[in-house]
Amino acid sequence: MNSNRRSLIAATLLVAGMQFAPLGAAYADTSLINVSYDPTRELYRAFNAAFAKYWKDTKGETVRIQNTHSGSGQQARAVIDGLDADVVTLALEADINAIAEKSGKIRKDWRGTLAHNNAPYTSTIVFLVRKGNPKGLKDWGDLTKDGVEVITPNPKSSGGARWNLLAAWAWGLKNYGGDVEKTKAFVGDIYRHVPVLDSGARGSTTTFVQRGIGDVLLAWENEAFLAIEELGPDAFEIVVPSLSILAEPPVAVVDQVVDKKGTREVATAYLQYLYSKEGQNIAAKNYYRPSEPELVDPDLLKRFPKLELATIDQLGGWAKVQPEFFGDGGVFDQIYKPGK
Amino acid sequence: MAVDAAMKPSALALSAAKEERVRPFRDPTSESLPVKILLIALAAAFLALVLFLPLYAVFSEALRKGLDAALLAIADHDALSAVSLTLLVAVIAVPFNLVFGVAAAWAIAKFEFKGKAFLTTLIDLPFSVSPVIAGLVYILLFGAGSFLGPVLESWGAQVLFAVPGVVLATIFVTFPFVARELIPLMQHQGTGDEEAALSLGASGWQTFWYVTLPNIKWGLLYGVLLCNARAMGEFGAVSVVSGRLRGETVTMPLQVEILYNEYNYVAAFAVAALLALLALVTLVLKALLERVYSRDHALTPGH
Which residues cross the membrane (chain B) (predicted)? Predict the structure, then answer.
């Protein structure tokens, strides 16, 4: 009986005890949390290393930067719910506005605290198709052809997906001479060709690339380039439509958090470093269009195709577009009927 | 048709009885050879498809670039801290649910009280709600917009997007494992042994320690193992409250997802393989303990 009892205790302890391992966290002088959107993983991995070196060289301080990535809307939600981000580097203005409005953690007039409307890099939306472009997709109008499957994430949670929808919208407006109803029908038609709505851009890329679903991926230009680089130029190619949208992913300091943690100086320097020669070149290397191209190696710039880019301001700016298109009962809710 | 059937039973019984008389006796577990082969092949194919192939896929993908690459991926700082966080979470969640599970099962199986059915349902709740909801509940409770969150925050305690949140979410989803395992067992055993012990003068604690605990040890061990496996593998609830801070709040399942999303498939599956190995170690441990126990049994006379 006694040995039984001892064995039982031993058993319980063993199950618990075998899992002890030292918790070794690397402590640094300062640490920053950068809450970012889905496809910037590679960009910030390179940039964080460069900034840590720069900060060490100029200030002698070791800084450790933590990056988290997910759909842009989802990330904004996490910051609102209490994730202690020092800086946010999201996919669109509306998500930073949401943080400013719903939690007050970022000042309302954040846009303009840094150069170029707080967008150190821009991007656009292109098509990624399978090698040889078997369905012959050249422009937005081809996406609604019979039998074409389009992959794009959910605009409710993904910033890239909102740019996708707006790019299609901009093309529709131009094509139908500004007729909103026809444009709406056209964009709705595109979404009827979407078999899966993932929550973030990277999830969509995986759906298209790894699971082999769909004929065309509406993707961030950087994401499309990266997919080709990572997964082989012999499998995919990029198609540049006649018109797309100028996407400005903005960055901002989260005022309440940096004031609480005492990291305002390093957080601000971190974002400003994105505009430096080094930062701009890293952005360009990772296929983001630098906001100050004159600082960047011309060879890197040559990789970006030239195309006509509509701006968000032509559609009325984010303050108008966000509720009108992506709010409850907005354009997206009206046109998206799953399973049709 | 219904009338027809109602009138027939006697006739049916008669013909069934007749048939039985004609049929020679047959061992109920013996089947003809082709049926045997078919059934065994079906079971084996099912096992291969559902269990072995996925396991094989995980390990083969992890080792696609050789053992060195896989080990290097696991030795990565973020991966190591994911491993230690996962273990830490299990070390906290499992004993917590062990104590709670025994107490709850004890109360439910050995006592009669008002609201017992309600309590039983409540214990099952984490099984019936989706883990995502479990995570969101904690956001509602401890988020910046909640009542508790800002209060705790002003005391300098952060729950969400920090280790406590991950632990809480894990405890929530693994709540029922021990209790669920023990309740039917203890109900089946009844209160006879305990009553006997008490009437012989044992104290409540002695009764529990010398009578109840030995009776339930196998159920308890099994519950703890299940609880442990789930605690280490939980993804949904943890992903909601974690905030995915690398090296801080990322557990192994989250690390697998992050690496996968970074196109780092070898590293992702190396961590996944390690997670699978941890689960296997638990199972091996269980088999080992069973062996020790049966030897003890043989040596203890009169038991």
Answer: 37-59, 80-109, 129-152, 159-179, 263-285
